[in-house]
Design a protein that fits this description.
heterodimer, A: alpha/beta, Rossmann fold, 5 strands, B: alpha+beta, Four Helix Bundle (Hemerythrin (Met), subunit A), Alpha-Beta Plaits, 5 domains
Chain lengths: 121, 691
């Protein structure tokens, strides 16, 4: 079975782009419009990897990462933040919350597939 | 984006439509918030929402290769970030600049989607935003500090440390050091920090009750810090993929792996043992902090997005179904006599289900009228500014739903009415005050559903229509109206083409080519316009339109071997008339006497150049009404009454005067839907020519 990835972004077009890239590479992809929705979905099934935006309504990406890490099933799931924000402080916060990596937007699709492949290829 | 990346993403233009739609929504949301926001009491949540919307547009536009939009929204975001963090208070200038920037983004989007020939310049707007994106300059404040009376001298080393520390915060001057028991230490200090900071330093050395600080005037401000440095901007927006290096490079890059994939895999393979948690305690604390911040999970309303074409297709298919059902009912009309009860019951069910299905499908096309109303706060604000008036706009019934096709057609007429209300209706503040009214005027838009119609009221509390002037103007134009005619007849005059009582032509309302166009537009939607006004208290224009344009109740008639559809809303009555009842000169103006009225007569077959027998019987007269005028349409036969699905003739063929659209009948033939306003006015003209 193909590996499953949860894509979290409140911007529909961005979400669609990330999903398209991942789907084209054969991953099975689910989507969520913000951190809260993502957390809800993550509680019903375990994804192999999560790619999340940071700045979102209801629950931001770093908070989502922290909440996911608290779930026993997500102890070993790679959590990657994909954000236009790349300030060292925020990155440090993401790291402390348990993020596996941080990618800047706009992203290079091939690079994204490279990163994702390294974790769940 | 590199070529290779573009390939991996596939055809980027596949995302354009989604992006444009989304960006439009974000811009509308930004505008809506900016228009209602009170700079003096801006809610953090509002600023956050605007920030997020700009942020969202920025991310996708950079990805899709729209650098101007990405760059402008980035600068926009910088300003919003300063504002939402409260580094500087929101001002009226900010709101204006943000609205303007939103317009430029809109124009850029229009250009990118091919709806505009040229792209607007973004540099000027960016510079304007950058100039505003300056946190409040740290104002230097003068403080006079007095410590004492001292119970005992302060240790020299401590005093030194304190003064040294204060020098680091600001400039210490006028020292008066009486460091003895019962003495005082006084000095002046100018610093950027607040009194709180100062006190916290002083109390390290002296007991709090001995610290006396009096704040003086604001000193000269230091140079304002430069706008948020754009240094990181380029890097953030257009990262050269070649620059990306693996985590060996400690510089900030666009990818930062906190764990090497090798370590990750090894750890996963080995499984995790207790006590093997690689996360430091401080980080764990951080996680817990993050957990606490997590808001309660809420269930989101489930909805899906569907393209308008798909819905229109559904509407069309249901329309065909309605036609088929009508056809079946027609063909089996004789069943009752034949005793086919089961078939009749089945047909009845089919009719009911079809109607329910039709209503359900039509409901999908319904959108709240807020889609139309939302544009008015901005319009009113700008108009009021331009005209030097104070206007408050009140919206109500925004949730009232109507057919999507109607909303677009209502925008122009309503915009016209609102402009009129502000330009002609509302007085200037000084005039209002002199008349004992509030300084600012009010324009209210209210929508409500009444039966199968939507009623929209545009009301102002201005001066009202000037009856004397309208009558004078009418006299100039040679219209015949009695000086004591009732108000509603006088008001009708302003609906005539070219009628204007405006003292001067303004760039807002133009030359008074207004109300006639408004009425014509509304009538083309099957609607009506009414007007009520009273001097000194204001004017109310009431627009009433049907809920939907897609289906009408109609009477079908035959004339010259052709079937025509008359909208039932305009039918007053129908009757058989003898030839001798129609008077006048054949081929020109003819009239029919109906009770006390002489109505102009229009022979349908003649209107549409169908074969007809001029010498034959009068036939059947369908008395119709439109624009407050009546006419008699002469037809050969009344066929029946039914719902018809309106198809645009313009979209499928071309526009024909006197024809509002077409429909497909039960037998599969096309029937033309008559444009009653056109036919009645034409009949009226030919009758007038006769007099």
């Amino acid at each position: 079975m193909s590996k499953s990835i949860l894509v979290v972004d409140d911007t529909r077009s961005m979400r669609k782009m990330v999903m398209t890239v991942l789907q084209a590479a054969g991953y099975s992809v689910e989507e969520a419009g913000d951190g809260a929705e993502a957390l809800e979905k993550a509680q019903t099934r375990v994804f192999d990897l999560v790619v999340t935006d940071h700045n979102m309504p209801r629950m931001d990406g770093v908070t989502l990462v922290g909440a996911l890490r608290k779930l026993p099933a997500y102890d070993e799931v790679a959590l990657i933040v994909l954000s236009t924000e790349t300030g060292p402080e925020l990155k440090a916060k993401g790291r402390a919350a348990g993020a596996t990596g941080w990618m800047a937007k706009p992203f290079d699709p091939e690079k994204m597939l490279g990163i994702v492949g390294q974790f769940i290829g | 984006m590199s070529v290779a990346a573009a390939k991996a993403l596939g055809d980027a233009s596949a995302f354009h439509a989604l992006f444009f739609e989304e960006a439009d929504e974000h811009l509308a949301a930004i505008e809506e918030i900016l228009l209602r926001i009170d700079p003096a009491a801006a809610a953090g949540e509002d600023l956050n929402a605007i920030f997020r919307a700009a942020h969202s547009i920025k991310g996708s536009s950079a990805m899709l290769g729209f650098p101007e939009i990405a760059s402008l929204t980035h600068v926009l975001e910088n300003l919003l970030d300063i504002l939402r963090k409260g580094e500087r208070a929101l001002t009226r200038e900010d709101v204006d600049a943000l609205l303007r920037a939103g317009d430029v983004v809109k124009m850029q989007l229009a250009f990118r989607r091919g709806a505009a020939a040229a792209a607007p310049d973004v540099d000027g707007t960016e510079n304007e935003l950058r100039a505003l994106a300056v946190a409040a300059p740290a104002t230097l404040r003068r403080y006079a500090v007095r410590l004492g009376p001292l119970a005992a001298p302060i240790e020299a080393a401590e005093l030194d440390t304190m003064l040294c520390g204060l020098s680091g915060m600001g400039e210490v001057h006028d020292r008066h050091l009486e460091n003895i028991a019962g003495g005082e230490i006084r000095f002046g200090l100018a610093l950027a920090g607040g009194e709180h900071d100062l006190r916290s330093v002083l109390t390290l050395v002296v007991a709090p009750e001995l610290v006396h600080i009096s704040a003086g005037d604001a000193a000269a401000s230091p140079d304002a810090p430069a706008a948020t440095p754009p240094a990181a901007t380029d890097d953030e927006l257009f990262v050269d993929p070649a620059q990306w290096r693996r985590r060996a490079n400690p510089e900030p890059t666009d990818v930062d792996l906190f764990v090497t994939p090798q370590a990750w895999r090894a750890r996963r393979g080995a499984g995790r043992r207790a006590g093997d948690d690689p996360v430091a305690p401080a980080e764990r604390e951080g996680r817990r902090e993050a957990d606490r911040q997590a808001p309660a999970v809420q269930a989101d309303a489930t909805s899906i997005r569907v393209s308008v074409e798909k819905i229109d297709q559904l509407v069309n298919l249901v329309g065909e179904l309605v036609i088929t059902e009508a056809m079946l009912a027609q063909q089996h009309g004789g069943l009752q006599k034949a005793g086919g009860h089961a078939e009749l019951a089945g047909l009845g069910d089919l009719a009911r289900h079809t109607r329910n299905l039709q209503e359900a499908v039509m409901a999908i096309r319904m959108v709240p009228i807020s889609a139309v109303f939302s544009r008015f706060p901005r319009l009113v604000r700008e108009l009021a500014q331009r005209l030097g008036k104070e206007v408050e706009v009140k919206l109500s019934g925004e949730a009232t739903e109507l057919d999507r096709g109607l909303t677009e057609k209502l925008i122009d007429p309503l915009t016209h009415l609102v402009r009129n209300a502000i330009d002609h209706g509302l007085e200037r503040p000084e005039v209002r005050l002199a008349a004992g009214k509030s300084r600012g005027g009010t324009v209210s838009l209210a929508a409500s559903q009444r039966g199968g119609r939507i009623v929209i009221e545009v009301r102002d509390d201005g001066r009202g229509l000037d009856r004397a002037r309208i009558l004078a103007r009418a006299a100039e134009r040679g219209a015949s109206i009695a000086a004591d005619a009732p108000d509603h007849e006088v008001w009708q005059l302003i609906f005539e083409a070219g009628f204007s009582t405006a003292d001067s032509v303004t760039d807002v309302s133009g030359r008074g080519v207004g109300m006639d166009v408004v009425r014509r537009n509304i009538q083309s939607l099957g609607g009506t316009v009414d007007l009520a006004s009273s001097a000194g208290t204001g004017t109310t224009v009431t627009v009433s339109v049907p809920l939907t344009l897609a289906i009408i109740e109609a009477m079908t008639v035959a004339a010259g071997g052709q079937t025509y559809v008359v909208p039932l809303a305009s039918v007053v009555e129908s009757r058989r008339v003898g030839k001798d009842e129609i008077r006048g000169i054949a081929g020109q103006g003819r009239t029919l006497r109906v009770r006390d009225d002489y109505l102009p007569v229009q022979r349908l077959a003649e209107q549409f150049a169908r074969p007809h027998d001029e010498s034959g019987d009068g036939g059947i007269a369908v008395i119709v009404e439109a624009d407050g005028a009546k006419a008699a349409l002469l037809v050969d036969e009344l066929i029946g009454q039914q719902q018809v699905v309106v198809k645009s003739l313009e979209a499928n063929f071309r526009r024909i005067p006197g024809i509002a659209g077409a429909t497909i009948m039960g037998d599969g033939k096309v029937a033309l839907i008559l444009d009653m306003a056109h036919l009645v006015s034409q009949a009226g003209r030919s009758a007038a020519a006769l007099h």
